[in-house]
Amino acid sequence: MPEHQRISLKLSLLFENALANGDDCTVYPPLDWKISDDTIVQPDVLVACKKIEKKYLDFPPALVIEVLSPATAAKDRGEKMELYQSQRVKYYLTVDGQLKKIEVYELFDNKYKSVPLNRGSFDFSFKENCSATVNFGQIWE
């Protein structure tokens, strides 16, 4: 779906620009993440803070973004959210293009907690010396 792809591209660019100061974290568009031999997912956008040595990601990223569609919203908010939480992905974002709404979840004590956006912005702290402030309002422009 064109709108889905445009939102994914804009999110990738926002994070790419926010991380442009030479941090160790890298933004990737859809990329296979092999969690186990029988579990492979491909988030819309992810941020990895270690070098990927294989043809796929084989460790948990620091951030995963799923752009919701009517066909995937229940799975993204349910099964995938539980999977990412179990893998200890620090940040999980769901983006609803129809409602122009972003939900940010941060891992606290191995459980996702919804965290509020401050005027559409959020400060991500991926690891020591790797952070990003992202203004999500730019997605809808």
Number of domains: 1
Cα radius of gyration in angstroms: 14 Å
CATH topology heading: tt1808, chain A
Return the average pLDDT rounded to an integer. 91
End-to-end CA span = 18 Å
Strand content: 35-45%
So, CATH architecture? Answer: Alpha-Beta Complex
Cross-sheet strand order for the largest sheet: 1-4-5-6-7-8
Uncertain stretches of 5 or more adjacent residues: none
Descriptive overview:
The protein has 141 residues and is an alpha+beta fold. It has a single domain (2-140), classed as tt1808, chain A (Alpha-Beta Complex). The chain has three helices and ten strands, in the order αβββββααβββββ. The strands form three sheets. Strands 1-4-5-6-7-8 form a six-stranded mixed β-sheet. It has a two-stranded antiparallel sheet with strand order 2-3. Strands 9-10 form a two-stranded antiparallel sheet. The longest helix has 17 residues, at 2-18. The chain is globular, with a radius of gyration of 14 Å. The mean pLDDT is 91.
Can you describe this structure in just a few lines?
This protein is of the alpha+beta class and 141 residues long. It is 21% helix and 37% strand. The model has no long low-confidence stretch (mean pLDDT 91).
Question: Keyphrases for this structure?
Answer:
141 residues, alpha+beta, tt1808, chain A, six-stranded mixed sheet
